[in-house]
Amino acid sequence: MALKSAKSNQKFLESEIGTIRKQWKGRISIALVYPNHYHVGMSSLGYQTLYDLLNRLDQVVCERAFLPDGKGSETVRPATIESGRPIADADIIAFSISFENDYPHLLTILDQAGIPLRSGQRSARHPLVIAGGVACFLNPEPIAPFIDCFLLGEAEGILPRFFQVFEPGSDKQELLKTLACQVPGAYVPAFYHAQYHDDGTLAAFEPIEDVPPKIKRVYLKDLNQISTCSAVVTPHTTFDRSFLIEVGRGCPHGCRFCSAG
Q1: Fewer Cβ within 10 Å of end Cβ, the chain: N or C?
Q2: pTM of the predicted model, to two decimals?
Q3: CA distances in angstroms from 182 to 43, 73, 123, 220, listed in the order given
Q4: CA 184 – CA 211 distance, rounded (Å)
């Protein structure tokens, strides 16, 4: 089924402008996964920005992966677009999640990749599974049992420190402890216990290890430091052959029904 995935990926690659290719040898390898189909994921400026940010780091090679699509997709082994490698071969599987409706797709992708669903069932031979994105900022708890580490906040303020700390092949528990203590915005669910009221609202949230009692989302103080725009242009998106540019981020009004504020 890897061949079926490779053929599908080749179709997308042939029509892209801006694809980034780097050698894996000697670098930290990341499968950047959007838990929906290519058409949806590549329409996300946030996902494209993360792809560009990660590949700007010389010690990192980042390749994209998506929820398999089309006939027989339920048996397709998820692989990266650029090299066709199974996502399970990467040092890190990083999910960028914009919508809670995509949470079930995360489990589908892990299952099809042959990776144990629950974080506690994985060993050092499995990739580190991390997640970020707007959906995770708002409510990471529905998928907390399946994620090794959430990165809560804006990637530009988190990634430099994360890759100073991350060591491929290191003991998983020690690595997670270091991430939780030293990386801003890092939330390791295994180190915390959440209690809920009968109506489902949060009653208590406490650490069960020697880690920070509160996790603070990371915000950039000055957006003028960065330039956010399309990294890859492709006709296979909602914005057909359009070049996306971020002119503002968030909203000052903070309405309770809206994630932008």
Answers
A1: C
A2: 0.91
A3: 33, 39, 22, 18
A4: 12
